[in-house]
């Protein structure tokens, strides 16, 4: 399906870039060339069992998957997205959790750092 109907809609809507990850799609487009509302309607006609939602940037920011993308005049910057309910609580070293859980928690944090190209903060 992606190489047929979706590709045609992306091309006809003049979408510049799109990324997919499981059930999320990030679309980059030029507001002067693309009517995003029309694009959204077209996507929802692909199959009756699948309905897409549209989340647009607010205050030049968009949370996508686990990153926050901020748009400036000349570039995009990236940071880790944390939900407002995030507690940053980790499993304490001396807890009774299995060692595999403790290691998995640390592996997740390390993997996130290695996976996403975050924007360096100026000190």
Features:
123 residues; 5 strands; 29% helix; three-stranded antiparallel sheet; alpha+beta; elongated; 3 helices; two-stranded antiparallel sheet; 22% strand
Instruction: Give me the side-by-side strand order of the main sheet.
Output: 3-4-5
Form type: elongated
State the total count of DSSP E strands: 5
Helix content: 25-40%
Task: Explain what the structure shows.
By secondary structure, the protein is of the alpha+beta class. It has a domain at 1-56. Helices cover 29% and strands 22% of the residues. The chain has 3 helices and 5 strands. It has helices at 2-12, 36-43, 99-115, and strands spanning 15-21, 24-29, 61-64, 67-71, 76-80. The protein has a 3-stranded antiparallel sheet, with no helix packed on it. Strands 1-2 form a two-stranded antiparallel sheet. Strand 3 and strand 4 (67-71) form a beta hairpin. The radius of gyration is 19 Å and the shape is elongated.
């Amino acid at each position: 399906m992606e190489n047929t109907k979706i590709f045609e809609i992306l091309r006809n809507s003049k979408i510049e870039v799109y990324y997919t990850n499981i059930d999320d799609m990030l679309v980059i487009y030029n507001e002067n060339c693309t009517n995003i509302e029309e694009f959204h309607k077209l996507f929802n006609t692909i199959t009756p069992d699948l309905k897409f939602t549209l989340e647009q940037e607010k205050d030049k920011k968009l949370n996508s998957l686990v990153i926050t993308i901020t748009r400036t005049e000349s570039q995009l910057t990236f940071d880790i997205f944390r939900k407002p309910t995030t507690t940053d609580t980790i499993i304490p070293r001396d807890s009774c959790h299995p060692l595999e859980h403790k290691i998995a928690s640390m592996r997740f944090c390390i993997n996130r750092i290695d996976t996403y190209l975050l924007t360096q903060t100026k000190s």
